């Protein structure tokens, strides 16, 4: 099996129980998450060796984070220790007309985001990584972290490894300059990426790709091939989400490879917790691509994994491949015996 590693921040998630707001509640439930955590943990459940490259504080909170990651099946041998703080965010679940809300603490002061360039032994890391996962949220942090990402991606690529980049653009993290500030950094990573997680908005707004003013699927079919050709990307994947009047969500996944699109069927489902569903989709796409599954099988499985991720609390979806395929086949029952 390829050795898969994700470079990114571990955050403490502080969740208000139920559908209460921070103003109402006096209790919080904590766990640890992050895009890299979610992806490597999910891939570990699919049978891969998923490792996390990050920096955690040498505090009891850092120890708790490592214990949590090990419980998820994440390989923690590439984690460095240093600094004093862990990034945190507060999560309020939405309901009906009220959307969910995430409030970050000062994450720029975390151990990960303040780690010096020499915190990571790049040569040693590259020797242990066949597939590298990177995320646009990490790219938004600061120039030091961006430099670490680009160096690691370049060295993995030079050594013959593969790079997966999830665009995951967050407007609030890029400030007033927004797309203009993000574009050159995205372009640098896209030139190194083999598999990209993106949608038509990423192509149109971050990269300035031209597309006619049609529906989203038509724009996707125009923009994604143009991006793939421009940057030499082997495959691209992503989802379209619809929020329905009855509070259910509908999701359609796509996978573009070698000039051909494959779309999953539209899946409609109730939502318990939507945070991390995109990472569940990405993990299944990565797994399918590494296993050389047929294009349609991979995107169908990824859409089903994203659907299942909406049914559990917490950011990290821990399903086996057989559980995902069972959901894809429409197998449901009150109790499995």
Radius of gyration over C-alpha positions, nearest whole angstrom: 19 Å
> What share of residues are in beta strands?
15-25%
Total beta strand runs: 15
Helix-residue proportion: 25-40%
Number of helices: 12
Order of helices and strands: EEEHEEHEEEHEHHEHHEHHEEEEHHH
Distance between the termini: 32 Å
- Form type: globular
Write down the oligomeric state.
single chain
Low-confidence stretches: none
Task: Summarize the main sheet.
Answer: 9 strands, mixed
Round the mean pLDDT to the nearest integer and report it.
92
Structure commentary:
The structure is a single chain. This protein has helices at 35-45, 60-72, 122-126, 136-139, 143-158, 171-174, 178-190, 200-206, 216-231, 277-290, 295-309, 321-328; strands at 3-7, 11-15, 29-33, 49-53, 55-56, 80-81, 87-92, 101-104, 131-135, 162-166, 195-197, 235-243, 249-257, 260-263, 267-269. With 337 residues, the protein is an alpha/beta fold. Strand 7 and strand 8 form a beta hairpin.
Topology record:
Layout: E1 3-7, E2 11-15, E3 29-33, H1 35-45, E4 49-53, E5 55-56, H2 60-72, E6 80-81, E7 87-92, E8 101-104, H3 122-126, E9 131-135, H4 136-139, H5 143-158, E10 162-166, H6 171-174, H7 178-190, E11 195-197, H8 200-206, H9 216-231, E12 235-243, E13 249-257, E14 260-263, E15 267-269, H10 277-290, H11 295-309, H12 321-328
Parallel strand pairs: 1-4, 1-9, 2-7, 5-6, 9-10, 10-11, 11-12
Antiparallel strand pairs: 2-3, 7-8, 12-13, 13-14, 13-15
Helix pairs in contact: 1-10, 8-9, 10-11, 11-12
């Amino acid at each position: 099996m390829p050795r898969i590693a994700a470079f990114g921040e571990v955050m403490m998630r502080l969740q208000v129980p139920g559908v209460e707001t921070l103003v109402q509640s006096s209790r919080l439930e904590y766990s640890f998450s992050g895009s890299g955590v979610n992806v490597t943990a999910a891939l570990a459940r699919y049978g891969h060796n998923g490792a996390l490259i990050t920096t955690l504080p040498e505090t009891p909170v850092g120890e708790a984070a490592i214990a949590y990651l090990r419980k998820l099946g994440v390989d923690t041998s590439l984690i460095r220790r240093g600094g004093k703080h862990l990034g945190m965010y507060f999560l309020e679940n939405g309901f009906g007309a009220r959307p969910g809300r995430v409030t970050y603490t000062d994450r720029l002061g975390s151990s990960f985001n303040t780690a010096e360039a020499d915190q990571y032994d790049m040569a040693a890391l590259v020797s242990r990584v066949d597939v590298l996962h990177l995320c646009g949220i990490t790219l938004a942090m600061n120039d030091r972290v961006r430099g670490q990402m680009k160096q690691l991606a370049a060295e993995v690529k030079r050594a013959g490894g593969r790079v997966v980049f999830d665009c995951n653009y967050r407007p609030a993290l890029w400030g007033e300059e927004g797309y203009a500030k993000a574009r050159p950094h995205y372009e640098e990573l896209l030139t190194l990426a083999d598999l990209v997680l993106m949608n038509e908005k990423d192509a149109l707004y971050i990269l300035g790709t031209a597309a006619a003013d049609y529906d989203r699927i038509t724009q996707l079919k125009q923009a994604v091939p143009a991006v793939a050709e421009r940057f030499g990307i082997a495959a691209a994947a992503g989802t379209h989400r619809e929020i329905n009047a009855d509070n259910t969500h509908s999701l359609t996944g796509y996978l573009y490879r070698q000039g051909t699109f494959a779309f999953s069927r539209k899946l409609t489902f109730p939502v318990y917790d939507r945070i991390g569903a995109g990472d569940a989709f990405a993990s299944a796409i990565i797994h399918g691509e590494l296993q050389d599954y047929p294009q349609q099988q991979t995107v169908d499985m990824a859409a089903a994994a994203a659907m299942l991720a909406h049914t559990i609390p917490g950011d990290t979806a821990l399903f086996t491949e057989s559980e995902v395929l069972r959901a894809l086949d429409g197998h449901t029952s009150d109790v499995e015996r």
